[in-house]
Structure to design on (949 residues):
């Protein structure tokens, strides 16, 4: 057999020893037709040796290649590296569907070294990844064992690794991120699981401000330590040189240049893999892949931000054509019991509030798991179906916690996958049916417009022919309407769209339905998916209506026509004269202007005399908030659709998953928190059009941080840390103003939830019943228990931070001792751990007075340590008979701590709390049963409970 053998010999002087030639190790690097192998030899001066090699199938032991590699003489008493390249090979290629492997052996006399290898070609062309000449989309997962807290003997075993990798393949994942562990890498080779791997963190010897000074030493570390262990493994297709290094300023320039040079050097050493130089932050400026880390829908923004991926130019370097990957995304770190893991002194508690808010503890786990799966679905499916507009979208690798159990497990079966894992199995189907549905709430008798996307990433590269979509609308396993869509041929690695218009039967009852679909190809089911829809029946708006006079000031007639049609007594006004005090005024959306500002004294007088105003959303550019008479009311200006990183705002003007701060409030009659996740689009949007769907319930929210909260009842809030308000009632004189940021008018008669909510607001303002400024409390307040708190702590405004503490498993307690820092944060061993030790879950347990504070760009709370003491407060209405307030404090430190309680600026009491104690403090109440309770003292003190007697 004639093969061409290219020999390249590099000699490094390491030490001088006299012994027979031995092979220390070999470093094989394979492509589809060639093998390069570095052979590290030990020998004595002028010793001659012949090197021989063979490549045999690991399956059949059939010989692929066997030959002498040549004779070599070791010079100058040195160790020698012989680099040999064998070309012209015709192996069976390794792939996820055919993980074919070979055994390589190299001999020097009696010294033999072996490695198992595989052959494949992984490259990029035209902004796509190619494996063995065929484009491939990377369906990945970024958080995997080992080094995640599973007992080491178990998690490093081949048996566990194989069970894990097989499960990953069963949910259609084709690439994972793992550290250097040979058992795991061997299993990935054997099972056909691609790997992206390398150095996560700084290059060795680097600092936060600068890369390593010794470039050559750093290069050798990459070759011998960071990447060298991966070279024999065909499963490893992407090298990572660093993770989230500086990308701005001088430090960013230094790192970019260092990584560019390192890439150029390493690429000469191993050009069979593609490179990410600075995962997440480098944006492909120094290497092959345009890689991004974005946690849209967790730390910031929302899942809709992914629609920005349609803009190819936004995600490319000028003059280059690069595949785009998100090797970290999704987030949503749920803990052992399903609730979000509230690791202290991190961004996690702030993010949790944005998505599951102040739901009762009994609902938090289901809500968190559901939302985690929701973001997983949208991140992965949108990335794939948006290839129609941006075909360089090439891979997603969510960084999320997919299993309940980690520590103390005895087998993989005990890990228990979460709903998000099974969602990946759907969203990562090689042939994907994906419903683009922006009408999640609809009336019977209306037409549902939906787009059925089909993405053909068949694992075997086959075209999809003779296929059809079967769909049906179901509820409780009963089917009410069904149909079929015939599909044209969909070539491999392309997408297809079909418009589906469904007339919702007028006979359906109110409830949640599913649109289920499946792709049938040659009689076989190749893909399934579903989308949930709330359908309102004829009885939905048959609710009692309050009587009374309604005046409408509106630049359009929508509100007037709608309310008139419902039978309300409505009259249009120009605000040129006083209004009757026992009536309500509705200010229409966007109707505030300079004329309204001039006439605002009429509005203020109307409210002070007992009138009520429902002020619908207004434009921040024109709305004058001074007439509200509660200090600084700031209308928010930044949209969470803006992909700018870092996010330019902590709280957004628009948002989803609205938190019902007072869920039993009359404005929410007949409605549930789930109905405020998203509302139906009214703009006829689909992804082929520019812009975004109109589906956020709130689009014009406001910030009350610097407002007089003694006059405000916050009814609904949203965004990070619940720092944005969507609905609040302002009490002035004998009347009140219900100010809304909800997007109402465009959805009238289209979205049943919007209609019911608007009717509730109108009825509430018309009601002769007294409106309550403060929450009435008759039972003990268990701080940190949202149900018990009843909306007393309104997101970011009160200064009372949720105290979170870790639940440390018994087998972790020595390695992760419970600590408390000077600001009162409790943590296990060190801060963080939501991704590295997911077996430790942090839960809410009391509150701490920590103000003043701000927020970092990423969303973490930043406490002003110069103030020494923390402050916080809440407003409450207590029974008239109450005479005493009891407050229970917990001091987990070694020191005596102090806290001053002030009630209505009348009663002031400083309390001393002994170390390592739980202490009940008694405070006499002032005569007024509407209270402002103010705390000032040590931030380390935990306020456990408050009750009135």
């Amino acid at each position: 057999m004639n093969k061409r053998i290219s020999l390249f010999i590099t000699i490094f002087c390491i030490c001088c020893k006299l012994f027979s030639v031995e092979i220390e190790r070999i470093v094989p690097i394979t492509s589809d037709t060639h093998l390069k192998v570095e052979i590290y030899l030990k020998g004595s001066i002028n010793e001659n040796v012949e090197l021989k090699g063979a490549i045999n199938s690991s399956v059949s032991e059939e010989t692929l290649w066997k030959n002498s590699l040549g004779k070599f003489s070791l010079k100058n008493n040195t160790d020698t590296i012989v680099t040999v390249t064998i070309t012209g090979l015709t192996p069976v290629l390794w792939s996820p569907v055919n993980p074919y492997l070979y055994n390589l052996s190299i001999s020097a006399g009696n010294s033999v070294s072996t490695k198992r290898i595989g052959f494949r070609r992984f490259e990029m062309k035209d902004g796509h990844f190619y494996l063995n000449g065929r484009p491939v989309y990377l369906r990945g997962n970024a958080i995997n064992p080992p080094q995640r807290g599973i007992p080491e003997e178990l998690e490093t075993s081949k048996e566990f690794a194989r069970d894990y990798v097989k499960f990953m393949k069963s949910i259609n994942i084709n690439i994972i991120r793992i550290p250097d562990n040979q058992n795991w890498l061997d299993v990935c080779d054997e099972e056909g699981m691609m790997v992206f791997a390398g150095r996560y963190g700084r290059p060795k010897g680097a600092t936060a401000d600068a890369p390593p000074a010794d470039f050559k030493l750093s290069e050798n570390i990459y070759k011998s330590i960071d990447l060298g262990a991966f070279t024999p493994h065909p499963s490893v297709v992407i090298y990572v040189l660093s993770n989230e290094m500086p990308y701005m300023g001088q430090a960013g320039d230094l790192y970019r240049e260092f990584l560019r040079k390192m890439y150029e050097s390493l690429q000469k050493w191993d050009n069979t893999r593609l490179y990410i130089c600075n995962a997440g932050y480098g944006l492909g400026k120094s290497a092959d892949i345009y890689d991004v880390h974005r946690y849209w829908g967790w730390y910031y923004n929302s899942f809709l931000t992914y629609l920005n991926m349609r803009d190819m130019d936004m995600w490319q370097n000028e003059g280059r054509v690069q595949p785009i990957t998100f090797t970290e995304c999704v987030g949503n770190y749920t803990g052992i019991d399903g609730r979000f893991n509230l690791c202290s002194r991190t961004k996690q508690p702030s993010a949790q509030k944005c998505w599951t808010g102040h739901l009762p503890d009994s609902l938090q786990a289901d809500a968190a798991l559901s939302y985690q799966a929701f973001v997983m679905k949208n991140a992965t499916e949108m990335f794939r179906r948006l290839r129609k507009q941006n075909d360089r979208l090439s891979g997603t690798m969510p960084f999320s916690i997919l299993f309940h159990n980690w520590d103390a497990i005895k087998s993989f079966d005990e890990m228990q996958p979460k709903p998000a894992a099974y969602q990946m199995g759907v969203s990562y189907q090689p042939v994907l049916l994906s419903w683009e549905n922006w009408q999640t709430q609809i009336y019977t008798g209306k037409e549902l417009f939906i787009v059925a996307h089909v993405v053909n990433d068949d694992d075997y590269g086959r075209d999809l022919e003779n296929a059809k979509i079967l769909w049906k609308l179901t509820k409780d396993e009963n089917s009410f309407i069904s149909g079929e869509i015939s599909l044209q041929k969909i070539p491999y690695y392309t997408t297809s769209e079909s418009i589906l218009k469904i007339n919702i039967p007028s006979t359906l009852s109110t409830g949640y339905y599913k649109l289920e679909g499946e792709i049938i190809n040659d009689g076989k089911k190749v893909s399934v998916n579903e989308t949930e829809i709330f359908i309102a029946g004829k009885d939905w708006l048959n609710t009692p209506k309050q009587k009374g006079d309604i005046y409408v000031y509106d630049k359009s007639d929508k509100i007037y026509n709608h309310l008139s049609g419902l039978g309300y007594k409505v009259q249009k006004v120009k605000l040129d004269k006083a209004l009757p005090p026992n009536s309500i005024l509705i200010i229409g959306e966007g109707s505030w202007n300079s004329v309204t500002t001039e006439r605002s004294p009429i509005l203020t007088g109307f409210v002070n005399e007992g009138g009520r105003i429902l002020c619908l959303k207004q434009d921040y550019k024109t709305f004058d908030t001074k007439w509200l008479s509660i200090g600084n009311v700031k209308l928010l200006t930044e949209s969470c659709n803006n992909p700018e990183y870092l996010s330019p705002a902590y709280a957004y003007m628009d948002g989803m998953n609205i938190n019902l701060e007072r869920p039993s409030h009359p404005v929410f009659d007949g409605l549930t928190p789930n109905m405020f996740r998203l509302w139906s689009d009214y703009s006829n949007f689909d992804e082929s059009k520019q812009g975004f769907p109109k589906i956020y319930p709130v689009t014009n929210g406001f910030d009350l941080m610097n407002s007089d909260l003694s006059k405000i009842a916050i009814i609904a809030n949203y965004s990070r840390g619940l720092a944005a308000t969507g609905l609040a009632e302002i009490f002035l004189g004998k009347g009140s103003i219900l100010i809304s940021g909800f997007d109402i008018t465009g959805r009238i008669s289209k979205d049943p939830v919007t209609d019911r909510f608007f009717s509730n607001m109108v009825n509430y303002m018309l009601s002769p019943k007294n409106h309550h400024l403060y929450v009435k409390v008759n039972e003990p307040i268990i701080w940190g228990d949202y149900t018990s708190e009843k909306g007393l702590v309104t997101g970011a405004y009160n200064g009372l931070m949720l105290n979170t503490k870790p639940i440390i498993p018994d087998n972790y307690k020595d390695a992760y001792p419970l600590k408390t820092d000077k600001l009162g944060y409790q943590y296990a061993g060190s801060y963080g751990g939501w991704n590295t030790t997911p077996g430790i879950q942090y839960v809410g347990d009391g509150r701490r007075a920590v103000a003043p504070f701000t927020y970092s760009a990423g969303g973490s709370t930043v406490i002003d340590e110069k103030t020494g003491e923390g402050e916080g407060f809440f407003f409450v209405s207590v029974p008239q008979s109450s005479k005493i307030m009891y407050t229970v404090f917990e001091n987990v430190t070694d020191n005596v701590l102090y806290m001053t309680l002030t009630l209505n600026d009348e009663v002031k009491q400083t309390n001393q709390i002994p170390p390592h104690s739980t202490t009940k403090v008694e405070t006499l109440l002032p005569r007024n049963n509407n209270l402002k309770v103010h705390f000032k003292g040590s931030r380390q003190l935990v306020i456990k409970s408050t009750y009135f007697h």
The first helix runs from residue 152 to 155. DSSP finds 13 helices and 51 strands in the chain. Residues 10 and 736 are 84 Å apart (CA to CA). The chain has a mean pLDDT of 95.
